Amino acid sequence: MSLYGYEIVQTLIVDVEPDDQVKSSMNEINAASRLREAAFEKAEGEKILQIKQAEGEAESNYLAGLGIARQRQAIVEGLKESVIGFSTSVPGASTKDVMDMILITQYFDTMKAISVSANSSAVFIPHELEDATSEQR
C-alpha cells in the first residue's frame, strides 16, 4: 500500500477463522485442562471428606472414652459406699469379706445372664464355689 501513498499503522481483525484441525486441537487442550482441574477438585473434596470422617470418629471415640471413664468412676464410688455401709452395719466384717461377697454376687449375675440367653452355647463345668473368688482374681 505504500506504493499508493498509504501506510497501515494498525488494523483490527474481528473474525479469525483458524483451520478446523487447529480448532479441534485447541478444544482438546481446553477440555484436558478442565478435566485435570475437575479431577483435582474432586480429589480435594474426597480428601476433605476423609479428614472430616476421621475427625468425627476421633471425637466419637474420645467421648465414648469419657463415658466409660465416668461409668467406671461411678461403679467404684458405688462399691466404695457399699463396702463402707456393709462394714459399718455388720460388725467384724473386713473389707476383703465385703469384696468377696460383691465378687460372688457379680459371678452369679454373670452366670444367670449367660444361662438365659437364647443363643447361648456355653457349657458349665461343675466346680467348687470357693474357687470362684480365686479364679476371678
Automatic annotation (TrEMBL):
InterPro entries (UniProt xref): Band7/mec-2_domain
PANTHER family listed in its UniProt record: HYPERSENSITIVE-INDUCED RESPONSE PROTEIN 2-LIKE (PTHR43327:SF43), STOMATIN-LIKE PROTEIN 2, MITOCHONDRIAL (PTHR43327)
Name this protein carries in UniProt: Uncharacterized protein
The organism of origin for this protein: Solanum stoloniferum
